[in-house]
Amino acid sequence: MRGDIMTVKEELERLEHRRLNPLAAFADRSRGRPRYEEPRQEDVRTCYQRDIDRIVHSKAFRRLMHKTQVFLQPEGDHYRTRMTHTLEVSRIAGTITRALGLNEDLSEAIAMGHDLGHTPFGHAGEAALSQCMGKPFRHNEQSLRVVDVLEKDGQGLNLTYEVRMGIVGHTGETWPETLEGQIVRRSDQIAYVNHDIDDAIRAGILTNEDLPRQITDILGDTHSSRINTLVTDMIRTSREAGAICLTPQVEKALKDLRSFMFERVYRNPVAKGEESKAKAMLARLFEYYIAHPEALPEDFQPQLSFDGMERTVCDYIAGMTDNYAVDKYTEIFIPMGWNVRG
Length: 342
Fold this sequence. Notes:
- The chain is mostly helical.
- It is 62% helix and 0% strand.
- It has 17 helices and no strands.
- It has helices at 6-19, 47-56, 59-63, 82-99, 104-113, 122-133, 139-154, 161-168, 179-202, 213-219, 223-241, 248-266, 269-272, 275-291, 301-307, 309-318, 322-333.
- The N and C termini lie far apart (80 Å).
- 42% of the residues are buried.
- The model has no long low-confidence stretch (mean pLDDT 92).
């Protein structure tokens, strides 16, 4: 090994070729970044490790802590947020990726960035912005926009191609090109269906006995057993097939469980009872900023000249946390008390 520090990164890249599956996405074979960056003599990270750090240190990542997963502003400390969901996806994806001999750094980077574009109030926010914009607002596309354009005052994070395509492909019609990205996509499904069951039971919307027996007989009747079944089945089946997949029986059980959750939780009036208020609030904020662009924060003002009014306002509102959206609505539309001194 040479004495200069550059050999640390090179050794990490060499280790990938020695220990990873030939089907893995190797860091030194990345298709690169949108903008060329000069190599750093002091860098001791592979390109995917650098992407993890760029995402975790971004403002959009920190905001996930205060964004709704399913339950709007729930009472209690143990309900999932977008942040905890992101961490659960990362851990599930890491377990599968490691067992298959694929690139854990790439799957972690994709997992950490996959939901950066989520709106306040979960999918209610997506629906509100879709209506305001007159076209579908898709959080996976917004996540890519966040890392490509919005972060770092319009410079974006300049992430690698593989991470960017994994982020935009974690849901929707386009599947990621890498096996690591496909694992994150499946891990997202495994995570949200199971932790949403856990939250729904905590909220009193479901009991464990409500889950259909034909599903629990296959996947298990506890949170941990269901995740373990799905993860181990995916590892075993993918090893044999050379592709990321589940056995038909487990795949059907997961789809049936997702359908059950849509029927009993995702469209449940108790869980979603406040959504109409959230949609109306975001729509009114959108109308206000369209009429008063000068009220947008200073760092959004330059964007108006090249992205236009609607896109800039949409980006601003999409980036809000739940509490910030409520605070701005209160500040703009709710009369405040004032003191009269005698």
